[in-house]
Design brief:
The protein is an alpha+beta fold. The chain is built from six helices and seven strands, in the order αβαααβββαβαββ.
Length: about 190
């Protein structure tokens, strides 16, 4: 006996499922296959250019983003001094995250307290598009040294999800008073081996 012919509802469900799969965020290094046959973009990163700094400043000055990251915004003078130091330091990896030709944020890697740390900042207008995951995966794939580490506030659920999608695992928690925030901040240390 032949199987029954699909009905329109079955076909619609299949199209709906395919549409949902097409919207899944990228969670693997660029160029590698990810679920459902999609391929991560070749690159969402490029070298930082001086013109990118205005967008970076606006991103970090966003009160909602700063609150979520539990990281205080810098005024323009402090921000410019910070980026002058970063750009002059060849040991720091710093990249611009690009989406549709626009500066969407930045990602970097540096040595601190005997650990190789990574960090990223995405402009709020670019949240929810998988850019942080794609950028961190691309950055991690380009850095041969392991382990990589990242500190994240326990309240920053979005960044926790990005780190976990990229294979980072929780290794430590601590809480301490943060003078900028004026309260105790609980943080998680993540590691990628």
């Amino acid at each position: 006996m032949a199987p029954p012919a699909p009905v329109q509802d079955d076909l619609d469900r299949g199209r709906d499922r395919a549409a949902r799969k097409a919207r899944l965020p990228l969670a693997c290094p660029p160029g590698r296959r990810i679920p459902f046959g999609r391929v991560a973009p070749v690159s969402v990163l490029r070298d930082v250019e001086p013109a990118d700094l205005d967008a970076f400043f606006e991103h970090q000055a966003d009160p909602e983003a700063a609150a979520m990251a539990v990281f205080p915004a810098r005024d323009r003078e402090a921000f410019d001094a910070h980026w002058r130091r970063l750009l002059a330091d060849d040991s720091v990896v710093k990249q611009t995250i690009v989406a549709d030709g626009a500066v969407a944020g930045n990602v970097g890697c540096w040595e601190q307290d005997g650990r190789r740390l990574v960090g990223y900042w995405i402009g709020r207008e670019f949240w929810g598009r998988g850019l942080a995951t794609a950028a961190l995966a691309e950055l991690a794939a380009s850095i041969p040294e392991r382990p990589l580490h990242a500190w994240v506030a326990t309240s920053n659920v979005g960044s926790i999800r990005v780190l976990e999608k990229c294979g980072f695992v929780e290794v430590e928690r601590h809480a301490e008073h943060d003078e900028h925030a004026g309260r105790v901040i609980e943080e998680i240390l993540y590691r990628l081996d």
